[in-house]
Specification:
Blueprint (H helix, E strand, L loop, with lengths): L2 H21 L4 H26 L4 H28 L6 H5 L8 H39 L6 H6 L2 H14 L6 H24 L10 H25 L4 H11 L6 H8 L4 H26 L1
Length: 296
């Protein structure tokens, strides 16, 4: 199966969300409620379900985690390199730097499912479990002077809580009852499709009135530099084919939709971040297939 065939259904759902948002006239309350349902209920269910029921061999996946987290650290470092390179208005850099390393978990798990089914989904969920706290700490750090505290922000993150609970459930050797497993499985399946539709509904290709050089830099780091680093590291460490694809796909993901929420809630420049998220998602339609083809 070609990479284009693998990715087409996911980007088609993003396009569907974009069209529904503009032509269905369902109101902002509908889309806000849908996003909350996905973020606080359905997506945590997927992460818990994936990490709780799949045995993990950390010796076998350790190198894959090194590649993925190495990409995150590289993104953080390259993102902060922009501070001395660009002169911007207050809160412009602090708001946008997170887009150089944060990742869209909805797209991540959708692509993983298409690449390798349940096994690949579990591998991506494992990466997300380790990467969420790292990336969230770095994102909140840039805006922390407007926040109630770093640990508070992390403790309230439903993706981190769900993954930690799932991994703890797994390590303890517990097993989900059949009814609970079936229910969580249905919720997990719904979360991927609805998550992609919500990504499309949230696209906003406006708001870039200044700091165009900074915006281009952050996009280049996220969509070009990070996947290149991930590909080089995965080949250097000799990852198995599926793990290499998952690691490179993770590094090549566009920025998380929740980056806008964080910036807006913590007094940052919301429109600037919204543009970076949307532009990165649109550009990834072209960049993701290239990096996945190189990782095969």
């Amino acid at each position: 199966m070609s990479i284009a065939t693998i990715l087409f259904p996911d980007f088609a759902l993003i396009l569907l969300g974009f069209l529904l948002m503009r032509f269905a006239n369902w109101g902002s309350e509908f889309w806000s409620g849908l996003e909350k349902l996905i973020y606080y209920v359905l997506f945590p269910a997927l992460l818990f379900y994936s990490t709780a029921r799949t045995p993990f061999d950390f010796a076998a996946t350790g190198r894959m985690l090194q590649v993925a987290l190495g990409g995150c650290v590289a993104g953080i470092a390259l993102g902060w390199l922009a501070k001395p390179l660009f002169k911007t208005a207050p809160m412009m850099f602090e708001s946008g730097v997170q887009t150089a390393f944060r990742f869209n978990s909805y797209i991540a798990l959708a692509i993983a499912s298409r690449l390798g089914g349940e096994q690949a989904t579990s591998l991506m969920a494992l990466i997300i479990g380790f990467a969420v706290p790292l990336c969230n700490m770095a994102a909140v750090h840039a805006l922390v002077h407007r926040s109630g505290g770093l640990l508070t922000e992390l403790a309230k993150n439903p993706l981190l809580v769900a993954t930690a609970c799932g991994m703890g459930f797994n390590v303890l050797g517990w097993h989900l009852p059949e009814i609970a497993s079936a229910t969580l499985g249905r919720m997990a399946n719904a979360s991927i499709a609805l998550g992609l539709i919500a990504v499309g509904a949230g696209l906003r290709l406006s708001g870039l009135h200044e700091a165009k050089g900074l915006a281009a830099y952050f996009l280049a780091v996220k969509l070009i530099a990070l996947p290149a680093i991930g590909l080089l590291l995965s080949r250097w460490l000799g990852l198995p084919p599926l793990q290499q694809q998952i690691a490179v796909a993770f590094c090549a993901l566009p920025t998380a939709s929740s980056a806008y929420v964080l910036a807006a809630r913590m007094g940052g420049n919301g429109p600037f971040v919204a543009f970076l998220i949307s532009a990165g998602t649109v550009l990834s339609v072209g960049t993701l297939p290239v990096w996945l083809s190189m990782a095969r």
